[in-house]
Design a protein that fits this description.
The structure holds 2 protein chains of 2 kinds. In chain A, helix 1 crosses helix 2 and helix 4 crosses helix 5. Helices cover about 30% and strands about 25% of the residues of chain A. Chain A is α+β, with helices and mostly antiparallel strands. Chain A contains 8 helices and 12 strands. Chain A is globular. By secondary structure, chain B is α+β, with helices and mostly antiparallel strands. Chain B has 2 domains: about 170 residues, no CATH class; about 140 residues, Cyclophilin, CATH 2.40.100. Chain B is about 15% helix and about 30% strand. In chain B, the strands form 4 sheets. Chain B has a 7-stranded mixed barrel with strand order 12-19-16-17-14-13-20. A 6-stranded antiparallel β-sheet of chain B has the order 7-6-9-4-1-11, with no helix packed on it. Chain B has a 5-stranded antiparallel β-sheet with strand order 2-3-10-5-8. In chain B, strand 6 and strand 7 form a beta hairpin. Chain B is elongated and about 65 Å long. The chains are: A alpha+beta, B alpha+beta. Chains A and B meet through strand 1, strand 2, strand 3 and strand 4 of A and strand 15, strand 18, strand 19 and helix 4 of B.
């Protein structure tokens, strides 16, 4: 894993930790961005972690680009000795898989899809050798997912499935992006899941919808009063399959200000995870039940 | 005082110098696309450069004023009219209580900046009054203006009418427009030949050109270096593991039509970028209409910093002239 540094114009440095996605690459980026935040370098204006890379914005009138690059590269060595564990939280996200709204949207943009005769969920189940929609839901919701990036649009999480690489669900993006995606669609592209925080364009496959808002600029949603975006990198997500009845009920409860997501604190160690994936996942998911 | 929107124009939004510090959760910088014109309009009416103004695209709004005030319009050549009487652009003029500000047809450029003494006084959200429409955040109710909206205006300092910015200090794109770009990011993904033709070709602004990004067409497609797709990236040769997109970065999905991300940029995604338009030339993009011929000009970091210094000098000259 060689780190690659590049200037993004006169105001950004772009750092690719690895060309490939892996939790190692994410943790390497997290260690360096944490070290950078702690270093409090004058002139740094934004630090943006991503899946296997990150970006730093700086003011070249305050710190010269070459000096910024030198200081950032010096932090890589410091970050290498950082422990790859974090105190984070697990959030349960209810999902109504194979729902009517993403189904309708998928049909509207069918000619932009690899397989116009099927649906996104059927297609992805098939190319991943899963046993139909039920087999897909089991594989998708069985293990937790790691939030490895927040972005694209406000508050949208990219999630990485916490299983062996050969068990990870993979799917291509639409051949041409859709101009519409329902708000709170659970999507998938490459090896990443996402939740579309707002309605809009998108190219990811659509598998379902959550009744749980994750971005609220008006901050009226009870659990988004402190901050308008729910997710941050390092969060862990457990999908909970729900049906139409529970979906409708949850939407009503959210609107009435009576609904709270299930969230529990949890520690995650990359080393422990790599030694025992299923054991780590079982421990992490048990935290939701108070264990 | 307040401004009543009679006609909203095509897509008129409240903008200021933008918000910083939230890109890591997908909230872009927003703010005026042509920042130099935005700041100039404010200085003309006696505001701080950071006050909120209206950014009108291609077509001006029609606005009724509830009190006497000073107004200035900069940026695109979008002739302002007060009760039908044409006013000079880049010049402060008076609008009296009950009068209507409207606009003639766009003659040049793309975005007009309408500053009012005291500034548009919508609430600050995350440190800025700028509109981020995709996220329904900031500005006037998080959206472009609509007929019937009533915009609050802050308490302004007195600003004399007739003050103007000389032609020489009004920066605008040339013909063809030239955008200086520092190659980098995933530049290594395209062939040497593609790297040459990208700078040789004259591109044209595509119809898909807005505050999120400007798309360009009519240049030769870019060929990619062969590779095995990295895990998680996707199979298209232009795919990368989803990463951050620098403001101003140039992505080329499938190697066909470059897109320069602008003020309401998506903060990241899965398409490789071949470089970044220098900060000094981002203002110029805001004044490009569809079909305008455009060339990308390769520069070094040293030249990018020189361009930045030149732009700052222009801003200082405008401020000194109007002081």
């Amino acid at each position: 894993m060689t780190t690659r540094y590049s200037f993004g114009g006169d105001e950004h440095i772009f750092v690719e930790c690895s060309e490939e996605m892996s939790l190692d690459a994410f943790f390497k980026g997290m260690s360096i961005t944490n070290a950078l935040r702690d270093a409090k370098i004058t002139g740094v204006t934004e630090i943006c972690p991503a899946n296997a890379s990150f970006q730093v914005r700086f003011d070249p009138d305050v710190i010269a680009p070459d000096e910024m690059m030198r200081q950032l590269q010096a932090l890589e060595a410091v970050a290498q000795s950082a422990p790859s564990s974090l105190n984070t939280r697990i959030i349960e996200v209810p999902v109504y898989y194979n729902d009517p709204w993403t189904h309708e949207t998928g049909q509207r943009f069918r000619e932009r899809h690899q397989d116009p005769t099927s649906t996104d969920i059927e297609y992805t189940a098939r190319i991943n050798h899963l046993d139909g929609i039920d087999g897909f839901i089991k594989a998708h919701s069985g293990a937790p997912w790691f939030v490895s990036m927040v972005g694209f649009v406000a508050g949208l999480p990219f999630l990485y499935q916490m299983v062996d690489r050969d068990r990870q669900i993979q799917s291509p993006k639409y051949l041409r992006p859709r101009t519409d995606t329902p708000r709170l669609t659970v999507g998938h592209g490459g090896c990443f899941a996402c939740i579309y925080s707002v309605r809009g364009a998108g190219g990811y496959q659509m598998f379902g919808i959550t009744p749980m808002p994750i971005y609220d600029p008006n901050q009226t949603t009870t659990y988004l009063r402190d901050f308008m975006c729910l997710f941050k990198p390092g969060d862990i997500v457990k999908w909970k399959p729900i049906g139409r009845e529970e979906y409708d009920h949850t939407v009503a409860e959210v609107d009435a200000g009576r609904w709270q997501p299930r969230i529990a604190p949890v520690t995650f160690s990359l080393e422990e995870f790599q030694k025992d994936i299923d054991g780590t996942n079982a421990r992490v998911m048990a935290a939701l039940n108070g264990h | 005082m307040a401004i009543k929107v009679i006609k909203p124009g095509l897509s008129t939004t409240v903008q200021d110098l933008g918000r910083s510090g939230y890109y890591h959760i997908g909230i872009p910088t927003s703010g005026g696309m042509d920042m130099l014109s935005l700041a100039t309009a404010n200085l003309l009416v006696g505001n701080d450069a950071s006050a909120a103004v209206l950014e009108a695209v291609f077509m001006g709004p029609e606005l009724e004023f509830s009190a006497d005030t000073t107004v200035a319009v900069t940026g695109a050549d979008l002739p302002p009219k007060v009760d039908g009487v044409e006013q000079a652009g880049w010049t402060a003029f008076t609008v009296k209580k009950g009068q209507v500000l409207s606009f003639g047809f766009l003659k040049k450029g793309a975005r007009g900046y309408i500053a009012v003494s005291g500034g548009i006084d919508v609430p600050m959200v995350l440190g800025s009054r700028s509109t981020y429409a995709l996220g329904a955040l900031g500005g006037f109710e998080g959206r472009k203006l609509a007929a019937g909206d009533v915009l609050p205006v802050g308490q302004g300092a007195f600003a004399a009418e007739g003050r103007a910015v000389p032609e020489a200090l009004r920066r605008a794109p040339g013909a063809p427009a030239e955008l200086r770009m520092l190659p980098g990011l995933y530049w290594h993904r395209i062939t040497e030949q593609a790297g040459k033709t990208f700078f040789e070709d004259t591109w044209k602004v595509a119809p898909e050109a807005d505050r999120i990004g400007y798309r360009f067409k009519a240049g030769r497609p870019l060929d990619f270096m062969p590779r095995r797709p990295p895990f998680g990236a996707g199979s298209d040769p232009s795919n990368i593991v989803d990463a951050c997109y620098p403001y101003g970065s140039v992505q080329v999905p499938s190697g066909t039509e470059p897109i320069v991300l602008h003020r309401d940029a998506v903060s990241g995604g899965g398409y490789m970028m071949i470089g970044t338009v220098v900060s000094a030339d981002m203002d110029l993009i805001g004044q490009l209409q569809p079909n305008v011929p455009t060339r990308f000009v390769k520069v070094t970091m040293e030249q990018a910093l020189q361009a930045r210094a030149d732009r700052r000098k222009t801003m200082h000259a405008i401020a000194a002239y109007l002081a």
